[in-house]
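[User]
If only I could read backbone structure tokens as easily as an amino acid sequence. I have put the entry right below:
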Amino acid sequence: MEMEAKVNLPNWIDSLAPTSVWKGIIDRSGARGPFPTTRSESWKYTRLGRIENQDWKSSEKSNLKLDSPLQLVNGFLQVNKQISGIEVMDSSELTVELKSRIATIWNEESVGDVFSNLCEEFATSLTAICIDKNQHVNEHVEINIASEQTGALVVPVIYILCEANSQVEFSLKWLNDNLGNFHLPYFIFDVKEGARLSFDMLQNAHDESVILTRTLVLQEANSTCSSSAITTNANWVRNELTFRVNGEGAESNLVGAYFPKQGQFIDNHTCVDHKVPNCLSNELYKGVLFDNGKGVFNGKVFVRKDAQKTIAYQNNANIIMTDEAQMNTKPELEIYADDVKCSHGTTTGQFDEEALFYLRARGFSMGLAKMLLISAFTSDVVSRISNEQHKAFVLHELKNRDLITE
């Protein structure tokens, strides 16, 4: 007990109970810090009225059961089935070492903005998922995310520890019955030496859902981490993904696809921070924008002074389906080393008229021709999704959902 008292924890971690219900709503008085405005560079194209102008309720624990080994309902993680090779602990079960590790990461990475403050005040739950050293988890671990409330602030914090030489695949799936809530999850992936991790994020949420994810990946030497972020439905989405490459020989792979349509907004902000030599990162995001849908991509790659021999690629490409759709894209490289191979690029435009003509001349309808071109355009992203069910779902959406009109 004396050791626990010496751990310098942020207040929200130290006081959080596994069944906590935080009372209160987001106020607009600025007491928790001002909301970012478009005068801030990282929020230049992202307006927050959808979040700021609504009073959100606190989330409450639910007994809803979903068809997945792990589930997040109203922001509380529940275990439906034990999975060989992983251990799940709520905040009351954390060891002193884990508490200290989480606290250190939080204190180093928290940006202290209004959303960090909301997390500290309204955190629904804190869960640690641990994979032991040398453990290969054979089962794909899916976490389904759902709600039984409307208008709630849902703030789960999930810390995932992949010990040295472990291997695991995760997927996070927002279900369409999520109702109109504000999801503010924090995911921390702590990837130790030689570990291999992949995680897929599929956001097929309710038409009125608001989602702001913050995901941090910490990579040590010779580790490999692959992520995918696919957004097919929601009202307002911003995904913030940060990779800290802390060990030599690490490999980071980031892919994403987004399909905003009528009234929808989807923003992807990524950062890959190369701190050490001899590492590789690959980043590819693609979007198809329909109706008056709006999209943002801001990808930043840092190569620190000591990170010689870094190889980093970044690309963003978009197809605009209508004159009303809008896309703002800003790929960035910030390089302080001189012996590197780095590139970045972006393209945004309408369909290739020659390709459309070619397909139309062979008897395809305009709708089918566009569908085939979209499938081909996104195939290099979809093919990198590790979860086969997610991959099939995205293909089904492109082929059968009413996204293509004549």
